[in-house]
Amino acid sequence: MQEQTAVLDSSGRFPVEPRSSKGLFSLFQRAPTFDHGIHPLEHKELTADKPIRRLPFAPELIIPLSQHKGKPAIPLVKVGQEVVRGEPIAQADGFVSVPMHAPATGVIRKIGLGPTAEGPKAPAIFLKVYLAAGQQVLYDQEQDPEQMEPEAIIAAVQAAGLVGLGGGAFPSHVKMIPPAGKAIETLVVNGCECEPYLTCDHRIMLEQTESLIRGIRIAMRATGAKRAIIGVEDNKLDAVAHLRARLPQHLPITAEAVQTKYPQGAEKMLIRSLLGLEVPAGHLTSDIGVAVFNVGTLAQMGDLLPKSRGLIERVITVSGLPVERPGNFMVPIGTPVRFLLEQVGVKPNAGGVILGGPMMGMTVASLDVPITKSVSGVVVLEAEDENAARKQVYPCIKCGECLNACPISLNPSMLGELAQARDYVTMSADYHLDQCFECGCCAYVCPSNIPLTQYFRISKAINRKRKQ
Amino acid sequence: MFKDIEIRTSPHLKRAMSVDRIMRTVVLALLPIAAFAVWQFGLSVLLLLLTTTGVAVATEWFFARQSGRGNTVADWSAVISGLLLGLTLPPGFPLWMAAVAAFVAIALGKALFGGLGYNVMNPALVGRAFVQAAFPVAITTWTPAFAPGRFAELIPSTLTLPFMQPIPVADWVAGLHMDGWTGATPLALQKFQHIETPLGDTLTGLIAGSAGETSALLILICGLWLAWQRMLDWRIPASVMAGAVLVATPFWLLDPVLYPSPWFVLCSGGLMLAAWFMASDMVASPVTARGVIVYGLFIGALTVIIRLFGGLPEGVMYAILLGNAIGPLISSWTQPRVYGSK
Ligand code: SF4
Ligand code: SF4
Description:
- The complex is a heterodimer.
- By secondary structure, chain A is an alpha/beta fold.
- Chain A has 3 domains: about 160 residues, Roll (Ubiquitin-like (UB roll)); about 170 residues, NADH-ubiquinone oxidoreductase 51kDa subunit (Rossmann fold, 3-Layer(aba) Sandwich), CATH 3.40.50.11540; about 70 residues, no CATH class.
- Helices cover about 25% and strands about 20% of the residues of chain A.
- Chain A contains 13 helices and 19 strands.
- Chain A has a 6-stranded mixed sheet with strand order 2-16-15-19-17-18. Chain A has a 4-stranded antiparallel sheet with strand order 3-9-8-5, with no helix packed on it. In chain A, strands 12-11-10-14 form a 4-stranded parallel sheet, with helices on both faces.
- In chain A, helix 1 crosses helix 4.
- Chain B is an all-alpha fold.
- Chain B folds into 2 domains: about 160 residues, no CATH class; about 150 residues, no CATH class.
- Helices cover about 55% and strands about 0% of the residues of chain B.
- Chain B is built from 14 helices and no strands.
- Classes of the chains: A alpha/beta, B mainly alpha.
- The structure holds iron/sulfur cluster (SF4) (2 copies).
- The site of one iron/sulfur cluster has 15 residues of chain A, from helix 12 and helix 13.
């Protein structure tokens, strides 16, 4: 991958040397990476060798109409209507929106407010599942994406209801269209999975390789990308070898190891590691000719598009020390967290439940919250009292650890002081607050236990309010 | 399944490193140095260290309570300041003066600014600088190491009554019949008489000097251990020493009789203790990665310049205090380049 794209000189980018050492130091060369970051305990051994399994259907599924960035979907069904697994039940509202499909065969019980991870209730479709019905999808129609025009593929991706399954939840078809005057040169396929505990992407690369490669080819065709690079952290070298053995030789698709370091899986970090490029502040990855897709998203794309199906299930990792039988599961969208945890068993020392990974995920306010399209894992934490002593907050002792951890090279120490002084304007104007993507590295390392990331989340929200 | 589900904000993981743990480990690293000082100089130094540490902790407790900051003694930072201060004083320093120094260190050096994390300068050095100015005689009165009977009797000046001039020790020292005792520290010998103490003596501490500054080797080992525990930024002591060597070497090459050798510069006086345990004070040093190197080089260089050209034999204290003062400025000059910006 060391060769640089010569074509990438569209305006406003700052090329940086690739992160690989040269000359004598190449003897000690490790996989490429980005600056700073952290090495939290991974706990991946809990589930890394657990193959993807299916679970029985939950008796009722709750399908929120807004599981993606953009406008909520519009219901197509009525209460009391029977639906077949795979049938569309809600349509996209405009371009930046996606449809929903029935994750199981059953009857619509209610259309109304349902629980969300964030807390406030939001519109959802409640589906009472016919438990006797099978898990195979009958609702499909053959098509060959490899013969379709890019526009047609992009429309088909939207029709499939695909969003970023790595946690981004951004509608995938929108990412396939570069801004006017720009072209996408490189497709970066994100198989880093840098969050501790999560192993679903690892399993997908091992078990759904064919679908993944098909998805990459479809996405390359749709975006016009000239090459694709699969970036995988070097704690999953088995996946790199597995992919390399199966990648078609005649296509410019490669699999590359990058260093195991959080947050390697953040788009901007992975682009830095693989391509030696930085995304200029306030720009999109497409501005430097790059589109990034998660391996889970592309595996689903490769699976769904040839049959014109919709996204009705996804692979998630259910893990955490209090979980009795952790594993990777193919879960229908809308399955309540409570049902999942009953299936895997939870010990009494459980405290909080996180949707996503422990660095960036959020704890749920209720176990009735459903799994949505962008939830990559359910991680159960131990009860708080066990490490309450570690929580005492001290003043900032200017140790500089947070500066050495921030992957964006911000100054969290200074930002934290400004947040305490409620000087949100200076935070944004002089200290690049808007570049913070809440990765959590600073709060993770801070010996004073200052909730820096939470400060920045709140400060950004206040600044957004102010601008309105 | 759950007693209660807890709502928390991300990140949900936290490195097992906390302020009190860092401070406790620093204290631990200082203990061998303190023990060596007691072994070397006897009971007087034991009392001296107990006094500075005790008064520092009491002062911290008092001011934290006054300002409603709760019990901040538990963070162990006052213990460090007290111990460090004691280690930089002459072994026979009158206890009442040591108590004043410790009070000033915490009251003016720390509490005045708002406590731990807000102090601009290293508290121990603030206390040391104060007594250097207030008690110029006592702070430069040295007594021999390994004096016979050092565990049976105190150095006479130790028990000077409060607000009295220190009891002179010259007669007492003469009574010890220590061979080769001149009453001058290696630094003063070098500066004023151009006699360089052999490296072996400055490494192992068989010399006159402040209680805890004599054995450069022991300090180095304790400092390295702390750095290995990742509780100390090794770049600071490394750049302080580099700065000192960089300035000292050209002069020494020019005139090895008049000017001290680089290894003498490193191993004499308070440089080693200051580089490893005072310049590296997190609170008073810059926060940026490049900033700490600039800061360290500045301190090292300035120390040597004061030693060679100033009126005093030792300059590391003032160099660090000055480094502390410009620390925030260095931080703001050396902000890292933010991702995605020029
Ligand atoms: S949360 Fe923000 S400030 Fe903290 S490390 Fe991540 S990007 Fe930097
Ligand atoms: S990690 Fe915490 S204590 Fe250290 S400089 Fe950053 S905010 Fe301050």
